[in-house]
UniProtKB/TrEMBL annotation:
Record PANTHER family: CBB3-TYPE CYTOCHROME C OXIDASE SUBUNIT FIXP, CYTOCHROME BC1 COMPLEX CYTOCHROME C SUBUNIT
Sequence intervals crossing the membrane: 251-270
Binding site for heme c 2: C166, C169, H170
GO CC annotation terms, alphabetical: plasma membrane
Source organism of this protein record: Mycetocola tolaasinivorans
Protein residues bound to heme c 1: C72, C75, H76
Protein name, UniProt field: Cytochrome bc1 complex cytochrome c subunit
Length: 273
């Protein structure tokens, strides 16, 4: 019986057709780089903004810079680069300024667990100029488009999104709630649609950022619709008791319900005697 032997040429062909470990690692690295680059590009397109609310002109930027240096630079630095007393504002975007200054949280009156809402200290034109200036320092979330602020979306979908993403801190009725270390999630009753949207895309205080990859602009519009609908209908079931849920309701029953039973018992006993 004869033994078949492979030729040197055939062995060389088999060796050259085998992929080396280095080539596989390089292919994986290229794939990861491509995927990461594509994700970063999409995130930058959806989360970062384009222009600020007012017309982005050099005069608006200069006026905003003057206001910033007169009112904000003590904590945030002359060029918004930050300081030991306040974070850098480069890249926070115009939406962050419009929310923080437009709700009176900034400038802060003093250091504390979180910035408190208080009367607004600037006109809307001044707020717009500040937003233009800070927005010019780096890309960041912009003022939302008016079409997402009309509170005319899908209230049912918005209520579901709110329950999943927001109710654990803000309460299912948007009444707010306590957090740790003296912090709290504020009530959303009476908050303007623009400020609700801006809070979602900037993540003030302890709030996470919900960019367009997490909740789409249409989803944010639906959340605003649900909150405004809830404000409009009020409490059809009766007294809201602060919308604090079963704890407040149970406490009400224990105090007033049990108290009424005791009072009735005393009255019946006194009457029989």
């Amino acid at each position: 019986m004869s033994r078949k032997t492979s030729s040197p040429a055939a062995g060389k062909s088999r060796r050259t057709g085998r992929r080396s470990p280095a080539a596989a690692a390089a292919l994986i690295a290229v794939g990861l780089l491509f995927t990461g680059g594509a994700y970063a590009a999409v995130s930058a397109t959806t989360a970062n903004a384009q222009p600020a609310p007012a017309a982005v002109s050099q005069s608006n930027v200069e006026e905003g810079k003057k206001l910033f240096q007169a009112n904000c630079a003590t904590c945030h630095g002359l060029n918004a680069q930050g300081s030991p007393d306040g974070p850098s504002l480069i890249g926070v975007g115009a939406a962050s300024v419009d929310f923080q200054v437009g709700t009176g949280r900034m400038p802060m009156q003093g250091h504390g667990p979180q910035a408190q809402k208080k009367p607004v200290q600037f006109t809307q034109d001044q707020i717009n100029q500040l937003a233009v200036y800070v927005g010019s320092t780096g890309p960041g979330p912009s003022i939302p488009d008016a079409k997402y602020l009309d509170a005319d979306g899908d209230a049912a979908n918005g209520a579901e999104l709110f329950r999943i993403n927001c109710a654990m801190c803000h309460n299912v009725a948007g009444a707010g709630g306590a957090l740790t270390e003296g912090k709290f999630a504020p009530s959303l009753v009476g908050v303007t649609p623009a400020h609700i949207y801006e809070a979602m895309i900037t993540g003030p205080q302890n709030m996470p950022v919900f960019n367009d990859m997490n909740i789409s602009p249409e989803g944010k519009r639906d959340i605003i619709t649900a909150l405004k609908y809830q404000e409009k209908v009020g409490n059809p079931g009766g007294i809201g008791l602060g919308s604090l849920g079963p704890v407040a309701e149970g406490l009400f029953i224990w105090i007033f319900g049990l108290g009424a039973v005791v009072a009735l018992t005393v009255w019946i006993t006194a009457k029989s005697n």
